[in-house]
């Protein structure tokens, strides 16, 4: 573990990052104003063969000076301008460097910014689709460096026969890649120069630290990494300029050879490696807005199917416990063959209040990806690239959360179509048909966006250099160059629909307390003067999450209908839809504009989180909750499923650690996809609501991601509080 000096450094860095604008003011993970200014200035001024201004560097002057610009090359040029104009940001405690420049714009720059915003209204609109949400081929970056990528791009570009029209777009793609890659090196050189300057003016131990860091940044990411620290610096430096969510992937697989070689050569100690890993996990707090999943995954298997459990696997869990970051987090893949020791350590870290790692069922996910048509070696080498959605690493051009569908509204529409129904069967049929139509309508918009992005670009082209098969086929991610291109719509309100169907079945068809029309009138009125009926629904009718066979059959029917509604819809890139049920915070966002529902939920309150039971209704303990959650097939839902569990702090330690271990093993055996745990008392959460200033770094799990509790909207906070606090008593 870390000594006092190392712990003090980690705490100082964390405190510094938490004072940065991205954390304090939720600036976001898109380009901040200064970078956006450089982007717009370059884009607007790059028309035709006009002078290209401040972005000129010796490396790109010849390439740019006389080349007419297509829309896509203008984007690449503007990306390059951001990199060429960024100023190095270095804190004296940092062991890994690279952060955005949050220096406020001057009055003159602010005026220019507003003028450029007006000018940019005429640019092709390619911004309304998710960027990122993928894990890049960082092992390739570490093997060859950016200079190796540049050499490959140049070789492929020079080999093109430009008399063939189909090669012109490939040539353009390679040109744009070179613009961005070479500018990445320009930024690296600026950081190296700044570190050299700091080393020359520093003294003592600090001078030695700057000299060592200068030697590292002088080399990577331009050249291949040789050491553990160079590897961490290289992948961070490439990713932090992308301004979006590009996940670090299986760090205990591709970083382990560097760590092992350093250890054997005496270049590093385990404590030094742990300190570096802590600094690495903290960095996203400096440029990714709070309450966004930005994970590294450990454990599971490698591409060949071998179990992965090494020193770095356990070290990553140690770092997660020390750092307690709401942004740079650890996710754990565990299958039936992974050790109890690894799972126990994960339970202990969660019990510490770190709210991580989330636990992913490696066996189930590999099976689900293979069923989708993913090659076995790619299906084993996946990671979560968002809250819970999983994608193959280094070969995906996938759109998650595209879009969120409010299925509670779909159920209400299905009820209105079946006022004279004699059972829930026709309601479910209408539900699937209406949902299919809604998905088709939304997919038309997404297809149009993808078409526009294919024409004019959107994703930074340098990203495509680390995504198979983009370079080999000469097409960017936006052109469909990635190996896998499916789209992941997300369905919100699963438990509300299940509980509503049980309420309809009970009240309308079995007990005949109300007619369908009367029940609709009740929910339309927000249960006005019908609180007695609402309480009957809540307290007397069984709910999802209590291991009731009849209820759980409805969960299977609803999820089967969702899968069915996604079938037969083709994407612009000639791929297909893969559903998910995780909700991020959209269960609260959509709930605010959703009327009351037949499950007793009132107008404007949050919908249920992910596929978990509605908060407060898992009243028969954690085992019953897990049995319900795994009563239906998770394999079609690679778009993400999360099951929430919440324990009081004393329920995950001592002999209860064995109980939690058994519970998670049962979840894996019963083919649940992902489970996340909150280990915190409601007393603490309620006090944090009253006194947020005392709980600046209090972490909770929401729906597939960790979050700083006091940064969450009030209704999301309340949904977490309302969840059942489970115990083994």
Alpha-carbon Rg, integer: 26 Å
| Shape by Cα distribution | globular
Main β sheet profile: 6 strands, mixed
Low-confidence segments: 48-55, 62-66
> What is the count of helical runs?
30
Structurally, how many domains make up the residues?
A: 3
Spatial sequence of strands, sheet with the most strands:
3-4-5-6-12-11
Residue share in β-strands: 5-15%
Termini separation: 34 Å
* DSSP summary, beta strand count: 14
Estimated structural class: alpha/beta
Helical content (DSSP H or I, runs of 4+): 40-55%
> What's the overall average pLDDT, rounded?
91
Overview of the structural elements:
With 729 residues, this protein is of the alpha/beta class. The chain folds into 3 domains: 1-29 and 251-388 and 642-729, no CATH class; 31-244, no CATH class; 404-447 and 489-635, no CATH class. Helix content is 50%, strand content 7%. It has 30 helices and 14 strands. The strands form 5 sheets. It has a 6-stranded mixed sheet with strand order 3-4-5-6-12-11. A hairpin with a 4-residue loop joins strand 13 and strand 14 (706-708). It is globular, with a radius of gyration of 26 Å. The protein starts with a helix and ends in a 7-residue tail after the last helix.
Observed structural traits:
six-stranded mixed sheet; single chain; 3 domains; alpha/beta; 30 helices; 729 residues; two-stranded parallel ribbon; globular; 14 strands
Write the layout of secondary structure elements.
Elements: H1 4-17, H2 21-24, H3 33-44, H4 61-65, H5 71-85, H6 107-119, E1 134-135, H7 138-158, H8 168-201, H9 204-217, H10 228-240, E2 246-247, E3 249-250, H11 251-254, H12 256-265, H13 270-282, E4 294-299, H14 311-323, E5 328-334, H15 340-354, E6 358-361, H16 362-372, H17 376-380, E7 382-384, E8 390-392, E9 404-406, H18 407-417, H19 425-456, H20 461-464, H21 470-473, E10 490-492, H22 494-510, H23 516-524, H24 531-540, H25 549-566, H26 586-591, H27 622-629, E11 643-647, H28 656-669, E12 674-679, H29 682-690, E13 699-701, E14 706-708, H30 714-722
Helix pairs in contact: 1-13, 3-5, 3-6, 5-8, 7-8, 8-9, 10-13, 13-14, 14-15, 15-28, 18-19, 19-25, 22-25
């Amino acid at each position: 573990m870390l000594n006092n000096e190392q712990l003090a450094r980690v705490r100082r860095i964390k405190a510094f990052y938490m004072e940065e604008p991205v954390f304090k003011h939720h600036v976001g993970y898109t380009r901040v104003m200064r970078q956006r200014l450089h982007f717009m200035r370059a884009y607007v001024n790059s028309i035709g063969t006009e002078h290209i201004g401040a972005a000129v560097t010796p490396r790109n002057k010849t390439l740019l000076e006389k080349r007419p610009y297509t829309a896509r090359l203008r984007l690449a040029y503007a990306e390059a301008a951001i990199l060429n104009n960024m100023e190095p940001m270095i804190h004296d405690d940092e062991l890994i460097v690279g952060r955005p420049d949050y220096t406020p714009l001057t009055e003159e720059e602010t005026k220019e910014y507003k003028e450029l915003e007006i000018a940019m209204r005429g640019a092709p609109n390619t911004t309304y689709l998710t960027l990122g949400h993928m894990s890049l081929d960082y092992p390739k970056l570490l093997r060859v460096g950016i200079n190796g990528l540049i050499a490959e791009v140049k070789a492929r570009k020079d080999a093109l026969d430009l008399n063939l029209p189909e090669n012109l777009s490939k040539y353009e793609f390679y040109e744009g890649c070179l613009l961005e890659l070479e500018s990445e090196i320009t930024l690296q050189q600026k950081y190296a120069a700044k570190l050299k300057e700091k080393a020359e003016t520093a003294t003592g131990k600090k001078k030695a630290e700057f000299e060592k860091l200068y030697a590292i940044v002088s080399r990577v990411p331009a050249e291949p990494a040789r050491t553990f620290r160079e590897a961490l610096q290289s992948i961070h430096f490439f990713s932090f300029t992308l301004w979006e969510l590009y996940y670090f992937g299986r760090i205990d697989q591709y970083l382990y050879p560097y760590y092992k070689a350093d250890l054997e050569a005496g270049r590093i100690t385990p404590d030094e490696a742990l300190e570096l890993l802590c600094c690495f996990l903290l960095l996203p707090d400096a440029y990714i807005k709070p309450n966004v999943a930005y994970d590294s995954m450990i454990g599971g298997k490698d591409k060949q199917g071998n179990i992965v459990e090494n020193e770095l696997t356990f070290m990553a869990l140690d770092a997660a416990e020390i750092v307690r970051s709401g942004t740079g987090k650890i996710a754990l893949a565990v299958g039936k063959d992974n050790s109890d020791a690894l799972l126990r350590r994960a339970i202990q870290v969660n019990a510490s209040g770190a709210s991580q790692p989330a636990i992913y069922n490696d066996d189930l996910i590999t099976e689900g990806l293979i069923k989708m048509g993913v090659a076995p070696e790619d299906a084993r080498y996946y990671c979560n690239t968002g809250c819970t959605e999983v994608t193959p690493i280094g070969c995906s051009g996938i759109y998650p959360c595209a879009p969120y569908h409010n299925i509670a509204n779909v159920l209400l529409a299905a009820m209105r179509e079946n006022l004279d129904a004699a059972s829930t069967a026709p309601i479910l049929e209408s539900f699937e048909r209406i949902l299919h139509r809604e998905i088709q309508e939304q997919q038309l918009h997404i297809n149009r966006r993808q078409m526009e992005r294919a024409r004019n670009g959107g994703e930074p082209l340098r990203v495509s250099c680390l995504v198979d098969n983009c370079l080999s086929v000469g097409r960017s991610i936006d052109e469909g160059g990635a190996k896998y291109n499916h789209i992941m719509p997300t369905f919100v309100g699963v438990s509300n629909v299940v509980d509503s169907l049980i309420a309809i079945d009970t009240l309308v068809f079995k007990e005949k307390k109300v007619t369908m029309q009367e029940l609709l009138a009740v929910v339309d009125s927000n249960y006005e003067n019908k609180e007695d009926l609402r309480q009957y629904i809540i307290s007397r009718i069984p709910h999802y999450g209590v291991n009731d066979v009849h209820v759980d059959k409805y969960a299977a029917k609803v999820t089967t209908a969702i899968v069915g509604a996604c079938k037969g819809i083709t994407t612009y890139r000639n791929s297909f839809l893969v559903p998910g049920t995780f909700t991020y915070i959209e269960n609260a966002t959509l709930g605010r504009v959703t009327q009351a529902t037949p499950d007793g939920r009132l107008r404007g309150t949050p919908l249920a989180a992910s596929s978990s039971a509605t908060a407060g209704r898992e009243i028969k303990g954690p085992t019953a909750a897990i049995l319900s959650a795994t009563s239906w097939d998770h394999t079609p839902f690679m778009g993400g499923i999360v099951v929430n569990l919440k324990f009081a702090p004393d329920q995950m330690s001592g002999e209860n650690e064995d109980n939690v271990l058994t519970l998670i093993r049962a979840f894996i055996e019963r083919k649940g996809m992902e489970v996340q745990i909150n280990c915190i008392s409601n007393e603490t959460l309620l006090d944090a609501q009253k006194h947020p200033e005392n709980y600046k770094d209090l972490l909770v799990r929401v729906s597939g991601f960790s979050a700083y509790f006091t940064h969450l909207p009030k209704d999301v906070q309340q949904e977490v509080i309302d969840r059942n606090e489970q115990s083994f008593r």
